[in-house]
Design brief:
- The complex is a heterodimer of chains A (about 100) and B (about 850).
- With about 100 residues, chain A is mostly helical.
- In chain A, about 85% of the residues lie in helices and about 0% in strands.
- In chain A, helix 1 runs antiparallel to helix 2, helix 1 runs parallel beside helix 3 and helix 2 runs antiparallel to helix 3.
- The longest helix of chain A is centred in the first third of the chain and has 29 residues.
- Chain B is an all-alpha fold.
- Chain B has 2 domains: about 450 residues, Cytochrome C Oxidase, Chain A (Up-down Bundle), CATH 1.20.210.10; about 170 residues, Up-down Bundle (Four Helix Bundle (Hemerythrin (Met), subunit A)).
- Chain B has 25 helices and 6 strands.
- In chain B, strand 3 and strand 4 form a beta hairpin.
- The radius of gyration of chain B is 27 Å and the shape is globular.
- The chains are: A mainly alpha (about 100), B mainly alpha (about 850).
- Chains A and B meet through helix 1 and helix 3 of A and helix 9 and helix 10 of B.
Chain lengths: ~100, ~850
């Protein structure tokens, strides 16, 4: 199970962030205008946390010696790509606020 | 990134692999016994057969039959559109034909075809005797074939659906689509999805648990990786369309207003649910095809795949990102700007993993010595077509462009480029490449070239002009058009192209009739020089012995492998328990864990498929009593089928080769049944998750109209009952030393779940909430209905356990049944708690 978590962890963080972004954007749509700024702050904080989590996973996967090269490569690059994707995914939300 | 080799996953000493290949002669008669156990069917056994060598061929054949049928419908449409104001087809007939073309291609051809390819190829590729649940594969096939043919025949009675392959309400509501045409789609597709999910469970467990020893993740064939991601995506995506079709059918049959804006519903909910399935569906179709491409390209270029690990990463990334693009089909529906921006960004991002795969194939072709044979041509054609479709996809991901092109022929052109380039051409490449594995003769190279060039030219002739007709404003789904808009020539050329494409397919059909000779005693063999295990010499038992895998391309890198495997010098050279068997290995490092006794053919799965199909079809024509009877008979067949399972063998442990002993019984996470149950419960969980999404979505449309939940006492009683049920289900496994106590616990847990459900239902009914009066009523009762379905299954399981106890089949020596039933009961309890929390506490808490 640890291997699969390591393999899919970064991408799962991306998926979680995407879901949260969708929920926050939907709430912002029906919320009072004065609540939108706090929602945006929550979103920015969440984005930073997710980028850090994905980066940490990438670093950990790169350094671990408990798994084979193939799994380490997939985990590390998958998490690194996820970190970039989280930033990419967040830009429209930030620009459209 | 170097370091020590990974630690053992199961405690198995991998140094034992060095004992293989063994030396010396195998015992006399061993091979003959193996052949007798895996014998060919006779008479009626051709229908009840479960071996993947047969079911896989049937499955691929049925999918290709639907491809041809849907292609004929396309020709009818193109004939109607060849010239302006034609009268070849009446408007209503045209509506039914374009709906059936899309539906049959997507649901009866594309997904089943790739699933069928998996059923056919995976056992040999993985070095297994068969996939772990061959009867489930056979059930999935028969359910698909019977349901699919009945669905297609609706066309001949004027009863075919006519609302387009994505069936948007309100067009498909009772008001605008009276009659049973839409019901055929809703119930037929719901049924066929069950078959797809059954196949996906088989593939996931097969890839994870029945690999040849030593086939670690880095040596897992890239096609198997693609099938694993594909099946995982089915498990996540298909529940959404099952829920959507159920809700729309409930609205049509019972008047529950999920999508009726006048009573608080919202047709946009359909679009969200449908496209949460519908867009990943494109990648669900594409990924196995990409896996096939990644297998065929190295063989025809005669060099290993460049960037193998990056291709695998691209599969995984596609699997995730494809679930973040569903709303790009909804850019013109007035979504909030923020959402549009997010989905646009994700739609552009998803092209990156596809690009990685394309560059990998190009690099492999460039670095090898490409042979331009039939599979090679289809591979190259696929590359070109898919890239063109991908580029127009990036265009459509740009919101301002999509606003202009939406619902025009530009989109028709784009989706056909993607699907034909991304799936149809790779499938033809696969058929040409792997036919020698199952047929005594390969397909003809000469006819193959004709097929390719006609399909390639016809494809571009048909669909390239559609970009122009779309940009010139021609909307999709019109049965005719007026002259004088400059649409005449592009349409005529498209029609000519469609017929050229069909000529290519016709030549392929002729080639198949002339040369395809399956089920014989010999195969044409490794004509194209592939490096995977599927090219080992094989019989109906798959390979004579199961090799230790030491390379991604074992046939290229492991010297004398074919000779030693055929001589029985690896794992499982015979049949130590005297029946059909395969090795079960661990999911990461493929270390041997135990021996799995496989089922033998019987008719129960076929009858189960017939009665399941009967249940849905009779429901469609509103023969409710007959439908219920058929459903009950279907359940009885499934229970009879399950009765054969979970019987320990007299030999607790057997020698599987080279003196290595393995157990013959397993339960828990090392067993295949446990994995299948967990994956099944993920399906249930996804339906629940999408139901909760629907609940919140409908609330957000009209929050002030929602009424408060019933009084708290019923919530407490239901929650406590469900919680105690979960505890009892967990304890039952631990009480197996006292079988009657374990059985009583299971029965009590099922009873408490019935109680929790009844209390919750009574509370809502007592509170005056009616399912047909408001969207809140509709969705609350829909969630209750889903829970009711699980509770009914839990009750049947409880009675089943009681019956097994009466026969003496419950005890500490066979914990699997109680364990799996316990898992199901525990999940049902958790689902009850989630449903209670959502419907009672949101919105408004306990007020």
């Amino acid at each position: 199970m640890k291997t699969w978590l390591s393999l899919l962890g970064g991408l799962a963080v991306w998926a979680g962030h995407f879901l949260a972004a969708y929920v926050i954007a939907s709430i912002a749509e029906i919320a009072d205008p004065q609540h939108r700024q706090p929602l945006m702050m929550v979103f920015v904080a969440l984005t930073i946390a997710c980028v850090l989590a994905a980066s940490a996973l990438a670093l950990r996967s790169w350094r671990t010696t408990r798994q084979g090269v193939f799994v380490r490569r997939l985990s590390a690059f998958g998490s690194a790509v996820a970190a970039v994707a989280i930033v990419w995914q967040s830009l429209p939300v930030y620009w459209a606020r | 990134m170097n370091g020590p080799p990974p630690a053992s996953e199961t405690g198995f000493d991998t140094a034992l692999y060095e004992r293989f290949p063994t030396r010396g002669r195998r015992p006399k008669g061993e091979l003959e016994r193996l052949e007798a156990i895996w014998c060919a069917p006779k008479g009626w056994q051709w229908i009840t057969v479960i071996n993947n060598n047969y079911v896989g061929v049937y499955y691929v054949g049925a999918a290709m039959l639907f491809f041809v049928l849907a292609g004929v419908l396309a020709l009818l449409m193109r004939t109607q559109l060849a010239l302006p104001m034609q009268g070849v087809l009446a408007q209503e007939t045209y509506n039914q034909i374009f709906t059936m073309h899309g539906t049959v291609m997507m649901f009866l051809f594309a997904v089943p075809a790739v699933e069928a390819l998996g059923v056919l190829l995976l056992p040999q590729m993985l070095g297994a005797r068969d996939l772990p649940f061959p009867r489930l594969s056979a059930y999935a096939f028969w359910a698909y074939l019977i349901g699919g043919l009945a669905f297609f025949c609706s066309l001949f009675f004027g009863l075919a659906p006519n609302g387009g392959w994505f069936m948007y309400p309100p067009l498909t509501s009772m008001t605008y689509s009276p009659g049973i045409n839409a019901d055929f789609w809703l119930l037929g597709i719901g049924f066929i999805e069950i078959s797809a999910i059954a196949g996906a469970i088989e593939i996931i467990v097969g890839v994870l648990k029945t690999r040849a020893p030593g086939m670690t993740l880095d040596k897992l064939p890239v096609f198997a990786w693609a099938m694993l991601v594909f099946a995982g995506m089915i498990i996540i995506a298909f529940p959404s369309v099952i829920l959507a079709t159920t809700l729309l059918e409930l609205e049509r049959a019972l008047g529950w207003p999920f999508f009726d804006a006048a009573r608080g519903g919202d047709p946009m909910l359909w679009q969200h649910l449908f496209w949460f399935f519908g867009h990943p569906e494109v990648y669900i179709i594409f990924l196995p095809a990409a896996g096939a491409m990644s297998t065929i390209v190295p063989a025809v270029a005669r060099t290993p795949l460049v960037g193998h690990w990056m291709v695998v990463l691209a599969f995984l990334a596609t699997g995730f990102i494809s679930f973040g693009v569903w709303a790009h089909h909804m850019f013109t529906t007035g979504l909030p700007g923020v959402s549009i921006g997010m989905f646009s960004a994700a739609s552009m991002a998803v092209s990156l993993p596809a690009g990685v795969q394309v560059f990998s194939w190009i690099a492999t072709v460039a670095s090898g010595r490409m042979k331009f044979n039939a599979p090679g041509l289809f591979v190259l054609g696929s590359l070109l077509i898919f890239v063109m479709g991908g580029l127009t996809g990036v265009m459509a991901a740009m919101v301002p462009f999509d606003w202009q092109a939406h619902d025009t022929y530009f989109i028709v052109a784009h989706l056909h480029y993607v699907l034909i380039g991304g799936m149809v051409f790779p499938l033809f490449a696969a058929i040409y490449y792997w036919t020698p594995m199952v047929s005594a003769r390969p397909l003809s190279e000469r006819l193959g070239r004709w097929t390719f060039w006609l399909m390639f030219a016809g494809m571009h002739l048909a669909f390239l002009p559609m970009h122009l007709t779309g940009l010139m404003g021609m909307p999709r789904r019109v049965y005719t058009y007026a002259a004088g808009r400059d649409w005449e020539w592009p349409n005529l050329i498209s029609t000519l192209g469609a017929f050229v494409f069909a000529a290519g397919v016709l030549i392929w059909v002729i080639d198949m009739i002339r040369n395809f000779r399956p089920f014989g005693t010999s195969e044409a063999g490794n004509v194209y020089g592939g490096g995977g295990l599927e090219w080992l010499p094989a019989g109906l038992y798959s390979t004579r012995s199961i090799p230790v895998v030491r390379s991604l391309y074992p046939l290229w890198d492991q010297k004398n492998l074919a000779r030693d495997v055929a001589a029985g010098r690896y794992f499982l050279p015979g049949a130590p328990t005297g029946g059909r068997e395969t090795l079960v290995t661990s999911p990461v490092n493929a270390e041997p864990q135990h021996l799995l006794r496989m089922p033998v053919p019987s008719g129960w799965h076929v009858w189960a498929a017939v009665f399941t199909a009967g249940f849905f079809l009779l429901l469609t024509v509103q023969a409710y009593a007959a439908s219920v009877l058929s459903g009950v008979l279907g359940i009885a067949c499934v229970l009879r089928w399950c009765w054969f399972l979970d019987h320990p063998l007299p030999q607790k442990q057997v020698d599987v080769g080279a003196g290595i002993e393995l157990k013959t019984y397993a339960s828990g996470p090392s067993s295949t049944g446990w994995w299948a149950m967990v994956v099944t419960l993920v399906v249930g969980g996804m339906v629940l998750a999408m139901s909760v999404f629907s609940y919140v979505f409908l609330w957000s449309r009209n929050p002030e109209a929602w009424r408060p939940p019933p009084e708290v006492s019923s919530l407490v009683i239901a929650a406590v009952s469900a919680s105690v049920a979960a505890v009892l289900a967990w304890l039952a496994r631990r009480a197996l030393n006292r079988p009657w106590l374990a059985t009583a616990m299971v029965l009590a847990a099922a009873g408490l779940l019935v109680l929790a459900f009844g209390v919750d239902l009574s509370a809502w009914r007592g509170g005056g909430l009616e399912p047909h009066a408001s969207a809140q009523g509709a969705i609350v009762y829909a969630i209750l209905s889903w829970q009711g379905f699980f509770v009914a299954v839990a009750a049947i399981m409880g009675l089943y356990v009681l019956l097994r106890r009466l026969y003496g089949y419950v005890g500490p020596d066979r914990p699997a049944t109680i364990e799996l039933v316990g898992l199901f009961l525990g999940y049902t309890a958790a689902q009850a708690l989630v449903g209670l929390c959502v419907t009672r506490l949101f919105p408004g808490g306990l007020s």
